[in-house]
Amino acid sequence: MSANGQRYNVGGIMLERPFKVRRLGHFGFNLTKLEAGRDFYGDLLGFTISDKADFSRAPWFPKDAGLGECHGYFMRHGTDHHAMVLFARPVMDRRADRKFAPEITINQITWQCGSLKEIADAYGYFQEQQVRIQRVGRDMPGSNWHTYVYDPDGHTNEFYYGIEQIGWNQHSKPRDLYYRGFQEKPDLPQISEAAELREALAKGIDIASGHRPALPNGEARFDVDGVLLPRPFKITKVGPVRLFVDDVDRAEAFYVGHVGLTKSEETVYRGARCVFLRCGAEHHSIALYPKELRGVLGLSPHTTCLSFGVEVANYAQLRAAVDFLKARGCTFIDTIAPELYPGIDYAAFVLDPDGHCIQLYYYMEQIGWDGRVRTAAERRPVSCEWPEALEPLSDSYTDQVFQGPFG
After folding, report:
1. What is the pLDDT of residue 99?
2. Is residue 388 part of a domain?
3. What distance in Å separates the CA atoms of residue 138 and residue 1, rounded to the nearest whole number?
């Protein structure tokens, strides 16, 4: 039963909350080394800039503060307008409307829901539950309808619907369409995307005037499973998120009780309880660890992010990604034990220029209707020397396939 004892009709299914998280969506960091971070996530990992925000135009921006780079980058790996968001930390620290605690460099953890009604109803639900709300409305760029709340440690969680999709010509929506952004809870029903397009054309808006990234010219030299790309791998999914928290029990109560995630399993590592939660069939979408493990693992004290995951298409690409990044001077660490990421076998951890840890992997255990996870004895043993190829598991290649071409 839900925290308030009610049940809600969500599309004809009676649930404990008036919304259902379908998947982990986009994610972002506030970076001190923004331009170096843009190069790392763009040139090296392969995220494409879909839009660039100029915060110096915002009314809250301190004009004479000498904050340096004042842009934000919305980046994607597929058709979603953004999967990774990079903002300048000195700028974000000056925002009166969005407070980040000193150790929180994550600017958002996002959860896709199934409809606009779910997002509107989530706003009322979180009000009733006295969960601290940051804002509600519709983002531009990105077009996603949203309700933003804080978790008990101050991490921003966005519940969203309807993120903009970018097609083969790689144009995002033009700025002239940003009048469809909302800074408040929207009245329902709203017009459809098709109706927005008709309205834009009627207003004489050039719908092909949105941002388009510079297209690669002659640099695609790696044969990636039959497609020539600038790097020998393709990111096909983002997540899981791994968080250091002050109180694992309290954080678990929020993400299970309020967000509606399901606990897959918990482990104890060096006396510390670690919890793994999911929103779909994947073993975990988010994992919670006590802060005392941060120093044990040798990770940077400046962030509550243990790691953020990026999945590549297959094991061969994972091996190629590690070689590619090492050849370009990226720093890898080996202090994160497999017990801290059950459900994933072969993985590597690389640091971004700010010191955030990125987990590269190719496979996550899939959980069926009965909710049973594999025992440790049933999982693939991982050797120090990575073999050239692996034997299949029962759930190899059974997760959602990447939609669209690799590049």
Report:
1. 72
2. no
3. 30
Range of the domain at 321: 233-378
Assess whether 208 and 269 both reside in one domain. no
Q: Please give the pLDDT value at position 185.
A: 94
Distance between CA atoms of residues 350 and 340, nearest Å? 16
269 located within any domain: yes
Can you give the pLDDT at residue 59? 79
pLDDT along the chain (407 residues), means of 10: 79 98 98 97 97 86 78 96 96 78 94 98 98 96 97 98 95 92 94 92 93 76 96 98 99 99 98 98 99 97 98 99 99 98 99 99 98 96 96 96 93
> Scanning the structure block, which residue is given the tokens 């379908």?
22
Number of separate domains in the chain: 2
pLDDT at 217: 53
Would you state the pLDDT for residue 373?
A: 97
152 with 279, same domain?
Answer: no
Judgement on whether residues 110 and 192 belong to the same structural domain of the protein:
yes
**What's the chain look like in SS3?**
CCCCCCCEEECCEEECCCCCCCEEEEEEEEECCHHHHHHHHHHHCCCEEEEEEEHHHCCCCCCCCCCCCCEEEEEECCCECCCEEEEEHHHHCCCCCCCCCCCCCEEEEEEECCCHHHHHHHHHHHHHCCCCEEEEEECCCCCCEEEEEECCCCCEEEEEECCCECCCCCCCCCHHHHHHCECCCCCCCCCCHHHHHHHHHHCCCCCCCCCCCCCCCCCCCEEECCEEECCCCCEEEEEEEEEEECCHHHHHHHHHHHCCCEEEEEEEECCEEEEEEECCCECCCEEEEECHHHHHCCCCCCCCEEEEEEEECCHHHHHHHHHHHHHCCCCEECCCCHHHCCCCCCEEEEECCCCCEEEEECCCCECCCCCCCCCHHHCCCCCCCCCCCCCCCCCCCCCCCCCCCCC
Residues 245 and 374 grouped into a single domain: yes
- Of 182, 215, 248, the one marking the end of a domain is 215
- Do 54 and 163 sit in the same domain of this protein? yes
